[in-house]
Amino acid sequence: MPRADPGRPHARTCAVVGSLMAEPWRHSHELRLLNRAGGGLEIRADLIGDIDPAVLRDHVSGELIYSLRSMAAGGLFAGTADQRRRRLLGTGKRFDLVELEIGRDTTPEILAAIPPHHRLIAWHGQSAAAGGLDLAALMRHFGAMATIPARHYLMITRATAAEHALAPLRLLSSLNRTNVTAFSIGETGACGRLLAPWLGAPMVYGQIGGRGPEVPSVGRLLQDYPLPNLPPVHHLFGVVGQSVHGSVSPRIHNAAYQALGYPGLYLPIPTTDFLGSWRTVTAGLDSLGCTVGGATIVAPYKEAALRLAEMTSGAASRAGAANVLVRTGTGWRAHTTDPIGVVGALSRAEVRLSGRKAAVVGCGGAGRGAAAGLLRYGVTPTLVNRGPDRGIRAARLLGLDYVPLQRFTPADYSLIVHATPVAEELLFPLGQLARDTTLVDLTCSRRPTALVTAARRRRLQVIDGWEVLRIEVARQFRLMTGRWMPDPRH
Description:
GO terms for molecular function: 3-dehydroquinate dehydratase activity; shikimate 3-dehydrogenase (NADP+) activity. The protein is an alpha/beta fold.
């Protein structure tokens, strides 16, 4: 990935740092992963108390970092200034690095006790929306931090919109240093946190034992991304939606890039305002030399993606929704892989489509895409939806019949595609289905969904969402990169 200073040598690795937020013995698996990667461990003493570092050194080969994060900095330490001073002076000196919050901990006494090579000077601020933190403001804050000699500097802002996570990245690019880590936290900060090492940040933080979905776990950092290595990246891609932190797409795409030696990086890009922020975010990343080449679009932005694009594929136009945006020389082209996902999964399962009476339950972007795919292959499905407005609109768009969910009779159909996000309950009964009925469930869940479980119990043929996803991801990969994706099952 090009840097602000093209002549600067490209850093080949970064340190993966696990933020320990619970008792270490409950998370031995992630500690082993971290140790194999040579990563460091941040002990969040404000959350779990002071732990003897000698105990931890048996489990982690990297550096140990002591953090007593205050409530003002987003932590939970609420003691007095004297209690904080005594804990930093007593426990902190036994760690490789001690996080010192600027202004609060950078007193002459503490600085005299903790030498520069053990200091990690930290600053925590608010997003542009809350405090007007642009690049100039961040530069001023760092200028104050840099007057205190230290081995590392850490700057964290809280982002409330996708574009606000760009400011720390601009800071890294402008500073052109190798001892500053800067990123945003909050729902929209994941992309910047993961991209920061390619812009010079020497560390990337993941959580161990934490519950916040916006912060990736150490396991996800090491399994979904090429970390701690920093291979060259010339093309940036991502998955865009309101809730994308649990998406498996980064793992699949990044593994394929590594297998092919392709200089790409695939990241989660959460946003609560897709239409309002997409062009700002991509332009901002472009200005950093991080060219966005394409993205997977998930709920609830599939229809918005169609409106944003300058060009649209025939399949996306027919479905009235898009789940892929690909950059061209003149703008964005919208595609949908939902049709090929369903039809391709049925083909792999050797399900013959001719003569099938089909129904598609769910009339959102995925359901309309599935129906369009079946239509193309000679099957005319009936659309089923709980809410009549979306169901009638989809029926008019595709020229199909619509049946309200409460009047849906599953036994009348030999092929049923479930295209709603409901995973924990059955939307329709399976008791009267014929033995040769095939069900396709588009919902991807870590555990088998209620529909998949019930269908398997009745020994019906069922294709789960993971089979469909594999086909769709391969097609998305091809659209974005022009390359064939290696089979992720091999």
